[in-house]
Amino acid sequence: MTRVRRPLAASLERVSTPALTTAPQAIDPTFENVWDEIVWRGLVHVSTDQEALRALLAGDPVTYYCGFDPTAPSLHLGHLVQLLLLRRLQLAGHKPLGLVGGSTGLIGDPRPTAERTLNTRGTVAEWVERLRGQVERYLSFEGENAARMVNNLDWTAPLSAIDFLREIGKHYRVGTMLKKDAVAARLNSDAGISYTEFSYQILQGLDFLELYRQYDCVLQTGGSDQWGNLTSGTDLIHRVEGVSVHAIGTPLITNSDGTKFGKSEGNAIWIDADLTSPYAFYQFWLSTADADVIERLKVFTFLTRAEIEEYAELVATEPFRRAAQKRLALEVVATVHGVEATAAVIAASEALFGQGDLTALDPATLRSALDELPHATVPAGTSVVDALVATGLVSSLSEARRAIAQGGVSLDGVRVEDDTATVEGGLPGGVSVLRRGKKTLAGVFLG
After folding, report:
1. How many helices and strands, by DSSP H and E, does the chain display?
2. Contacts for 288-296: CB closer than 8 Å, 24+ residues apart
3. Three-state DSSP class for 2?
4. Do the strands 440-446 and 263-264 form a parallel or antiparallel pair, or are they unpaired?
5. What is the pTM (predicted TM-score) of this model?
6. From 94, 275, 297, 396, which residue has the greatest number of CB atoms within 10 Å?
7. How far apart are CA 445 and CA 436, in angstroms?
8. What DSSP string describes 343-364?
9. Could you give phi then psi for residue 62, rounded to 5 degrees?
């Protein structure tokens, strides 16, 4: 089966397959105002005047934006918070601008500890297009509040250094810039900070000013760790245009144990299927802790308040069912990768653990699932005994033979009765699955 990526904004109807039903994209009507909903969902960590924002979002449609810098070939889970917030505000009738930073991506937002390595112009241009395509999938480009995509290179490239300093730089005070969290952290580090990265906040302020002038954009969203950059724009517009505009900083998502959400040993969870497979993506959400799952449902799904409260009750009374985690995984994978890909990974997950037909699986999904398990590549005709050792399911040949004799080994879903049996790659894509006991699995690739 070919993997199909269904655009998130393609339909507001309830999406379903014979096996799957997902929540429709909609604003929860039980809230008086979209502001109230995003506050309930925990999406406002810091902001400009809250009463003014509530009134703004309850009134006529306004234009708002979020920027994404091409410092990697894909967006990750932290960006997904912003993408879904953009969509929620659009569903409430407001007009989104998706900005991909062709110029700011050449500089890089200052990290707390060290200078970024500058990517080549060609790499940044390539990543701009990749990220643009990702952002577009989460917005609707039709109707009265159709989204627009913009690239800040369009207004920074023609600007000379002298014009930049005269027209923009003169509005910034170095003392204020030094107090920004990211800058202060770097100044207190051994690495220090270059003038290049120090200037990043001015470039982001310029973005907001240009979008205000071109599109009457009055709201920017971003992570709370970007608050200094967000207020760079609100302050600049106030000085230059004499008007007040707004910013919302979403919380940095962390797990209940305090660890940074979405990263393990420095590896991001990407929304690009080629960097994080849909199967691995599904398993990530499925493994969410009970203490975190309800907050994840609020942030990353379109389930209503009533539905989420029902799952909260199930977590409290029947946690062993993991109903909330299953629904979370279903909703987020369908949002990012589409319903068909989600159906395929659920089928693979169930089949691997004895609840489905391994031979009926999509070869690409099965291969990506086995990549997440212990696995080994062996020649065709390798004995099951040797394959058990190669995959690490047992530590020795004698242990492998003993496990087979005890009836505790299966190959491609069939119990192995004879220790002379061989691995022939009998599953779709020419792979095999070894199982020892009920839950210990490994993949075998032929090569």
Report:
1. 20, 13
2. 288/325, 288/328, 288/329, 289/255, 289/256, 289/257, 290/315, 290/319, 290/324, 291/255, 291/256, 292/255, 292/256, 293/324, 293/325, 293/328, 294/324, 295/42, 296/328
3. coil
4. unpaired
5. 0.90
6. 297
7. 17
8. HHHHHHHHHHTTSS-GGGS-HH
9. -120, 160
